[in-house]
Amino acid sequence: MSSTTNSPTHHTSTIGAIGAPSRRNTELALLVFAVVIPVFAYANVGLAINDEVPAGLLSYGIGLGLLAGIGHLVVRKFAPYADPLLLPLATLLNGLGLVAIWRLDQSKLLQSLPNYVTAAPRQLLYTALGIAMFVVVLIFLKDHRALQRYTYISMFVALVLLLLPLVPGLGADVFGAKIWIRVPGLGSVQPGEFAKIVLAVFFAGYLMVKRDALALASRRFMGLYLPRGRDLGPILVVWAISILILVFETDLGTSLLFFGMFVIMLYVATERTSWIVFGLLMSAVGAVGVASFEPHIQTRVQAWLDPMREYMLSRNGSNDGILHSEQAMQALWAFGSGGTLGTGWGQGHSELIRFAANSDFILATFGEELGLAGVMAILLIYALIVERGVRTALAARDPFGKLLAVGLSGAFALQVFVVAGGVMGLIPLTGMTMPFLAYGGSSVLANWALIGILMRISDTARRPAPAPAPNPDAEMTQVVRP
Amino acid sequence: MSELTLTVMRLGFLAVLWLFVIVAVQVIRSDLFGTRVTQRGARREAARPQQAARQAAPPQQRGQQGGGRQRRNAPTKLVVSEGTLTGTTVALQGQTITLGRAHDSTIVLDDDYASSRHARIYPDRDGQWIVEDLGSTNGTYLDRTRLTTPTPIPLGAPIRIGKTVIELRK
Question: Comparing C-alpha atoms, which of B159, B144, B87, B90 is closest to residue A3?
Fold first, then answer.
C-alpha cells in the first residue's frame, strides 16, 4: 500500500489505508464487562430481597460467562473482522433481562398467579439455545450472499410463518392476539419473530433486483416522485398482507413491523422520499380502517387514550365481554414511582403488572428499579446495536448485504420502538417482546440469529480487501502528437 | 441490608451501566479509521519505538514533526484545478505526493496522457516544495516550460500533467 518511491530526503513518508484491525481483544474486554454488570445486578437483587448474596450467583455468572465466551471464540475463529460491539451489547441486554426475570420470579404475588412458571431457568436455557443459534449462523453461513439465492423461497417461508397461527388446531389465542402456535413437546412458538429475519432476506433480494425500476421510472408531481402504477404493486401487496395480519391475528405489532421494515428498505433502495410518505399514509389508513371494526384493537386504543378508565373497569370486574386489563396503568405507575434514579434492584413493585410482567412489560421493571437513568442507558444500548447495524450496511460492499443489514437493524429498531412506546404509553400497546430483555424463547433465538447475520455481514464488510491486481494497461500511455 | 448499602449499590449499578455505554461509544470512536502516515528514511530507526503511539494521533502533528521548519509563506494544500479530479485537494504535511496512473499513487490520475508514474512533489530540506518529472512520456509542465530537472514550485503556478492541472495554495 506504500505510495512513495524511495527518496533521498528524510521527509519521505508513506500514506496507506489503515486496514480495519480485527478488534477481537476489544470485544473480549467489553464482553467481560458485559458479564460482570448482570452478575452485579444479580447480587444486588439478592441482597435487596433476601438480605443475602443469592446462592446461584457463581453458577449464574459462570453460565453467562461461558455462553459469552463460546460466542466470542466462535467469532474469533469464523468471523475475525466482525464488529466488536454487537456481541457484548447483546450479551449485556440478555444478562440484564435474565436478572429482571429472576427478580420477578422472587415475587410472591406472581408466584401465586395461576399458570405462573418460574421463568429464569427456562430463560437461561433459551439464552443457551440463542447463543447456539448465533454459533450455527456464524459457522454455516460462510457468506451472506448465499441467502440471495433463496429470495423467493424466503417469501414463501415468511408467508407460511406469518399464517401458521391462523391454522386451526395449531394456532393459540393468547389474550386476544393470535400470534402463537403450539408445537407438541416444545411449547408455544411465536413464528412472527423468525418471519422478521426471513422477510428481510426476501425484501433485500427483491429490492436489489427491482430498485432501478422503482427509483427511476416515476413522474414528478408537487415535489414528489410518483411511481408508476405497476411499480406500486409490491408495496400494495405487502400492505394488503399486513392488513390481513392485523385483521385475522389482531396483532398490531407484527403488522407494523412487517410494513415498516418494507418501507425502510424501499426508501434505502430507491432514495425516494415519496415511498415514506406513501408508507405513512397507507399505514395510517390501514390502522384507522381496521381499528374502526376490530374490537380487540379498539380496546388497545382505548387503553392507550385512557389507561385509568381501563384500570377501573378491570378493578370493578366489568362484564361487557371485553377483556380489560390494568397492565397499561400499572406500567405507567411503575415508571412514575421509579423516578430519575429508580428504587434500586428488587425494591420496586412492578409485579403488580401481573400477567406478562416479565415479557411484554419487562421495560416497566427497569423503569421502576433503575429509573430514567437506567432506561435511558438501556435504550442507548439498543440504539448502539442499531447504529452498528447501519454502520455495517454503510461498510458493506454488495447491495444485497447493505439492504439486508439495513432491513435487520430497521426491524430491530422498529420492534424496540413499538414495544417501548407501547409500554410507556406513547402508542397503543401491542403484543411484542423487547428484544433480548423479555422472557420468551422465540424472541431470544430469533434475535441472536439476527445478531449472527449482522456479524457475518460486518465481517465480510470489514475484512481488508485483497491487494488490487496489477493494471494490465498501466504502461499504455498515449503520446501527445503535436 | 442497610439503607445506605442499598443506595450505594443502586447508584453504583447505574454508574457501571453508564460506564459501559460510554466505553462502547469510545470503541466506536476508535473504530473510525482514515489514513496512516508512517515516517520513513533517516528518521526511521528513531521513530520506530514511538510509531505505535503516534498512529492514533491526528496526522497534522506528525507532518510538522517530520517536515522540520515550516516556512511562513509555505503552501498548505495541493489543489487540482483542471481535469477529471477537479476540486480535489490534498493537504501538504511534509509527505511526498506521487502523481500517475498507477494504483498506488497518492493522486491516481484517470488520464490516458499521464504515465503510470508521472511526477512527484516533495519538500526539500528547507520546506520548499519541489516538483520532479519521473521520466514521463508526455512530460510535466510548470507554467509553460517542460520540466527537465527538479524545480521549486511557486505558489499558484499551474503544473500540467496530461489533461490535469494542479497548483499549490496557502
Answer: B90
Q: Is residue A9 part of a domain?
A: no
Least confident of A167-181, A439-453, B137-151: A167-181
A89 close contact with B: CB closer than 8 A: yes
Range of the domain at B10: 1-28
User: Within a domain: residue B61?
Assistant: no
> Residue A235 contacts by C-beta under 8 Å, 6 or more apart in sequence?
A262, A263, A266, A275, A278, A279, A282
d(CA A283, CA B159): 59
Q: Which residues of A touch B31 (CB under 8 A)?
A: 23, 84
More reliable by pLDDT, A8 or B124? B124
Confidence of residue B53 (pLDDT cuts 50, 70, 90): very low
In a domain? residue B56: no
Residue B166 C-alpha from the chain's centroid: 16
Interface membership of A292 toward B (CB under 8 Å): no
Number of structural domains chain A divides into: 1
Measure the CA–CA gap between A396 and A99, rounded to whole angstroms: 36
Is the residue at B155 inside a domain?
yes
CB distance from A340 to chain B under 8 Å? no
Exposed, middle or buried, B163 (CB in 10 Å: 0-12/13-18/19+)?
middle
Q: How many domains does chain B have?
A: 2
Please state, rounded to an integer, the average pLDDT across all residues of chain A: 83
Q: Does residue B94 lie in a domain region? A: yes
**Residue A425, min C-alpha distance to chain B (Å):** 24
A410 domain residue, yes or no:
yes
